[in-house]
Amino acid sequence: MTKQKTGQQAEINIGMIGHVDHGKTSLVQALTGKWADTHSEELKQGISIRLGYADTTFYKCDKAKGAEGYNVDGKCETGKAVQLRRVSFVDAPGHETLMATMLSGAALMNGAVLVVAANEKCPQPRTAEHLMALSVSGVKNIVVAQNKIDLVDMKRAKESHTEITKFLKEYGYENSPIIPISANQGVNIDLLIEAIETHIPTPKKDKSKDLKMYVARSFDINKPGAKPEELKGGVIGGSIVSGTLKAGDKIEITPGLDGKPIETEVVSLGVESGSITDATAGGLIAVGTKLDAFFSKNDEMRGQMIAKPGKLPKPTKQVTLEVHHVERLVTSKAEELKANDFVVLAIGTSTAVGQVAKIGSKNEFEFVLKNPVVLEKGQQVAISKREQSGWRLRAYGIAK
């Protein structure tokens, strides 16, 4: 029996966001060596696609000056490499039909890299929508990667920088650094790492709080033809928001199946680099369970929440929110939410389809959803409205 490799949990989740084809996945590859899997075309209910993710470790050469010594391979021409921190990147899809999935990914992000292509005008439609999604999700720390500078001349590079600066100021992110890079050529990746280290700090962890984890992926790791005694339970991937988790813990997965929470036991914990003994708030983890793998195959558990049994509210299909329209994205009365409008609510990592059932006083909206969700009082929810061109972020709500 081979001994499992010991891994290291990433300290932070950093989103990779921006318009389609601006180079998000190429940049993840430049930073991690991994081509994040974001291109499965099997849409579910027309609004879902898998989030890509990959881990990396940032290093700094102790004798290097400025940004020159920042890297991800731990190699130095002189001196030794000092490990700074391990980071999980969450690659959010930029296509317009996948906005709801980007919003579900935003729930995992502690900061973000906004990728803007220098050879296109800024902002493109999804660039603005993604930045507002971060704002709605409470993500304050971002770094802008001005990508594809190898495809433009100096004049256009400066024009692009001016466009990005104006755009950031309009959306309240004017203090965010803009780093010119070429992801495909590996240009200025060291400067980008330095900016991430400086401007996106690791959030403080409170291990004393109750366990709460958002599920972003789930798997059946059993090979076809495996014997019954060889079968392993379902694996659930995601991020802990608060509290801790270790092997042997009893957990509740909710809203579960048809609104009935599922209780199971943690068998193992793993990260991209190997197995770990316990997990805390921070980067993406994989949780091995005793759950029948039939229920975890093909991301079937995406959008669920994990907690200790009995700690979360009961699942419900009726939700009341205090709604605030996003002024920068709602330019006419027709774009505001009305009774009977079809919507997608991004609640944690879940995307729930429903309708506006009733509009009351003080911006209170009642929604009836197709499937049950778990919602805590005061939780912020992103609201997308169905329009002819697809799902559009139009408002956010606060759970009553």
UniProtKB/TrEMBL annotation:
**Signal peptide interval:** none
One GO biological process this protein is involved in is: formation of translation preinitiation complex
The record's catalysed reaction(s) read: GTP + H2O = GDP + phosphate + H(+)
- Show the PROSITE patterns listed in the entry: G_TR_2 (PS51722)
UniProt domain Tr-type G: residue ranges? 9-204
Keywords for this protein: GTP-binding, Hydrolase, Initiation factor, Magnesium, Metal-binding, Nucleotide-binding, Protein biosynthesis
The keyword Coiled coil is annotated on this UniProt entry: no
Supply the enzyme class, top level: hydrolase
Enumerate the Pfam families for this protein: eIF2_C (PF09173), GTP_EFTU (PF00009), GTP_EFTU_D2 (PF03144)
Q: Which GO terms describe its cellular component?
A: cytosol
Specify the domain of life of the species encoding this protein.
Archaea
Q: What is its EC number?
A: 3.6.5.3
The answer, when asked if Lyase is one of the entry's keywords, is no
One GO MF annotation is:
metal ion binding
Family membership noted in the UniProt record: Belongs to the TRAFAC class translation factor GTPase superfamily. Classic translation factor GTPase family. EIF2G subfamily.
Question: Can you name this protein?
Answer: protein-synthesizing GTPase
